[in-house]
Amino acid sequence: MFAGKASTIIDPINLRALDLILIRTNDKKSYDHVAIILRKNPGLVVAQSSISNSGVSLTKIGVGRKGPKFEYKPEIGKSWENLYKNGLLEFRRLNILSGNPVSQN
Fold first, then answer.
1. Is residue 98 part of a domain?
2. Sign of the torsion angle spanned by Cα atoms 85, 88, 94, 95
3. What is the largest CA-CA distance in the chain?
4. How many Å apart are CA 7 and CA 56, to the nearest integer?
5. Predicted confidence band at 27 (pLDDT cuts at 50, 70, 90)?
6. How far apart (Å, rounded) are the C-alpha atoms in residues 24 and 31?
7. Residue 84, H or E segment
8. How far is Cα 77 from Cα 70, in angstroms, rounded to an integer?
9. Does residue 34 belong to any structural domain of this protein?
10. What is the distance between the alpha carbons of residues 51 and 39, in angstroms, rounded to a whole number?
């Protein structure tokens, strides 16, 4: 729903509030997790549902020359930095937020 024509992949250096993080399945055919970027002065945070805590967790995200750096460390699976390096984590901006109209086809 958030991928395809509804959004555009962006470089992490261009992240801003309301951008999305989508994590692909290992076969890269679908997505199994979505998180949203929020502004929290100073900087940005990732908001996502949490398995271990009921509710939503907020963790810091930073971006440097070597790519994104997440404060979040998953209890299961690879780090988000590794997922990004392996093409399984995408940063996306919804087209309605970037000024690009969504096709009605």
1. no
2. positive
3. 41
4. 23
5. very high
6. 4
7. helix 80-85
8. 14
9. no
10. 23
Domain that holds residue 81: 4-27+40-90
pTM score of the predicted model? 0.82
% of the chain exceeding 90 in pLDDT: 51
For residue 96, is it within any domain? no
In degrees and rounded to multiples of 5, residue 68 shows phi and psi of -75, 150
Which three-class secondary structure string do you get for 18-36? CCEEEEECCCCCCEEEEEE
CA separation for the pair 83, 76 (Å, rounded): 13
pLDDT tens readout for residues 30-47: 998 999 999 988 889 999
Q: How confident is the model at residue 24, as a pLDDT?
A: 93
Q: Is 104 inside any structural domain?
A: no
Please count the residues of the chain: 105
- With a cut of 90, say whether residue 20 has pLDDT above it: yes
pLDDT(101) > 60 = no
Number of domains in the chain: 1
